[in-house]
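User: Show me an example of a complex going from sequences to structure tokens.

Assistant: Sure. Here are the input components:
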Amino acid sequence: MELPIKYDPSLTEDKWYSYWLKHKFFHSEPDEREPYTIVIPPPNVTGVLHMGHMLNNTIQDVLVRRARMLGKNACWVPGTDHASIATEAKVVAKLKSEGIEKSDLTREQFLEHAWEWRHKHGGIILEQLKKLGASCDWDRTKFTMDPELSQAVIDTFVYFYKHGLIYRGVRMVNWDPEGLTAVSDEEVIHKETDSKFYHLKYPISDGNGNKTGEYVIIATTRPETIMADAAVCIHPEDERYFHLKGKKVMIPLINKEIPIIEDDYVTIDFGTGCLKVTPAHDINDYEIGLRHNLPVIDIIDQHGKLNDKAQILVGEDRFVARKKIVKMLEEEGLLLKVEDYKSQVGYSERTNAVIEPRLSLQWFLKMDVLAKKALHYVENDDVKLIPDKFKNTYRHWMETAHDWCISRQLWWGQQIPAYYLPDGKVVVESSLEEAYKAAKEINPDIKIEDLRQDEDVLDTWFSSWLWPISVFDATIPGHPDKTPNKDLAYYYPTNDLITAPEILFFWVARMIMAGDTFMNEKPFRNVYLTGIVRDKLGRKMSKQLGNSPDPIKLMQEYGADGVRLGMLICSSAGNDILFDESQVEQGRNFSNKIWNAYRLVTGWQVADIEQSKEAAIAIEWFNNKLNKTIAVINDHFDKFRLSDSCMTIYKLFWDDFCAWYLEAIKPAYGAPIDRKSYDATIEIFDKLLKLLHPYMPFITEELWQNLQAREDGETIMLQMMPNAAEYDEKFIEDFELTQQAIVAIRALRQSKNISPKESLELKIKGAFNPELSSILEKLANISSVEVVSDLSQFTDGQILMVGTVEFFVPLAGMINVEEEIAKAKAEIERYKKFYNSVNAKLSNERFVANAPAAVVELERKKLSDAQTKIENLEKVIENLTK
RNA sequence: GGGAGCAUAGCUCAGUUGGUUUAGAGCAUCUGCCUUACAAGCAGAGGGUCGGCGGUUCGACUCCGUCUGCUCCCACCA
């Protein structure tokens, strides 16, 4: 069977993924083994795979596959998030393209469209994850709007409401007067906009509604809101306005008397230092209003037009009103001046309308107690953040957390289970029937159809914070006293959560709160925070910029294994990754390297002949090196240094296995290999594939299946990971010295233009392990190796120093004596400098007195080694000058 | 404006409580090779006063201060 020279992932990836699925290797059920659990951060149900998902899910898959191979009962629960805002926006846009406005539809009709959309597009992303090799337990796939998960959300709301943690309150929202909805902060785009700064004269009154003839100057960009003013505010330490303290002013045009108040929110040197306070139409003014108990006068309706509370210009659009009122003020002589001004104005992402800050009734969840508890888990490392630098950020947020606004003016999501009686009273129950029962307690005559459910839905995070619980047992949220089912009892708390730092607060902290409330236990032990995937220029990858490669295309071109390796090799925890296609190219090249090593090994003819010395040595060395490296890999994993672990295996395979081991045991062209070496090599290859499997699942399965005869139903996925057995450090060191000597000889050949085919002799002086001669002979093409005690008789050649061992290569007539002397002299100079610096250190009594003995000892060794080297070099010069 | 983080080779990053580091790796670069596994390869080589300044210490890439530059989070100025 002739194997192609290049590895073709398209021939293996789908094949093995189906095989894994067919045999249900990803599926987990509780048993007596130790569980290892990850719940996927559920991607938006209608989303498509982007590079961030690729990184995030590759990491999860590596951890899960490794855990499985360590004998744990690994369970990776997949699923999707209904993502109310994003999904609703997509559905609205789709309907619009068909000429349908959301406002033309009833809630039920709209939801029908939304579900249709979800069924059509939902799950695409999960299919894409399969291409990546994700070993999720697909039988457990969940959606945050599955009936039982939605019920869990409702029950949770009821639970917190009944425990007094959920309340209804007024809050300033970003109102879109065209879309007629509140939009979240994330959907507001701030743009620098040209506007005007109007300086207005407010008459000072005598307190009885009479003007005193004096004025105070106020600068504003929104003169149309003056009718909603509740006060004028000055800074308490602003000397210019001391005389105004306690006085009152009249609102121009409507002549309403309002107080002058003091608040250090005001910036003395901004504008006139005198601020009109309009609690209904500015978030900051609203807060000042709260502090000073000011009335809220709302003069703008939902369409952005002035209402009758404005008294004047009623029914006018806010921008028309602005122009008209300026004119009116000017006519009254109350407009002092108009300045051009640039300011950040918020626009609706969807309608591009100027956002109007508007007060509205919203539902809130009290955060103080929950945040304190959630902070505790992280503070004492019950939940570990990786890297731990995020602890600071986390603490800061938890200490300043304000109450969570959980209501959204949307339809796609879990509708708030608050039911209003005709008299405005409210009951909160987990179903209409329950609500009806409760309502009858208040009013026995009430009919079920009299109840009106709150129109709003809950924030998406209010459902996803239950995720680690509800994917296993959705009856527990809202009912902490119930006994968890078998799954939840077994898999919870989960082990690792892999997510992005930007949702540390939105999601991670809140899962901890929900876990504490309903399970009295953390939801996960470790939180591994990945960075943002950026392009080469450091820009965040985004659709708008078009700088994100299509992950599916990338996998087609480089193979899923190649992409996985490419992403992992450069991604440390918490750091952004600057993605460049050259990285996945490296991954693809590595796949090819593995493929070709396999081609070489399986192409050998095996014969019952004697094992060569160098093969025996190479096998011994590699097994030692392998054991040592496994220990390093395990250590990296324990510390979540995934890219380090990945690089370690990469080098083990490419450098140690391919460049050294295989070259050392490789029989001459056409010659067979002895059975002993062959078997040892297959065993080593088998171990390497297992070590590589978590990173590169497809190629490793393909090669493992073919390395030896396998039964149907066997898989590398479920093999035990090789252990870190003991190893002989001294032997590894001896081999390393030999490697360095070989490199030096090869470099010598290159500099002297000696072909690798021309064999050389070698004399060695120093601590060289003669067992390793055969390796030297084979890999440096040496005809004879002789260990001698004195090199002074050998003159016509070159001495190479590795550590303190000297390797003499006879090079009759090829040595330029003067050049070599000059080189040796330069070397001596270098070592003398070094010697002096070490010597200075050792002559420092305070160093010798204070430094640990081991450090001093080391310095002494450095000194004596340098001494030896200098002496050797001096001998070299002596020989050369003979 | 408040808070946090980062700065080490051309690029991406290690450097694990200050002393086996005369600062490492991968990629890229350069030189020589189509050597019968692999040119998606082989062999070899070069490249950094660890952002600047100051301090602590016998000893600083590592600790402290400060400056400069970048990033993120939060709040956004009437």
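The lines above are the inputs; the final block is the predicted structure for all two components together. The first strand of chain A starts at residue 35 and ends at 39.
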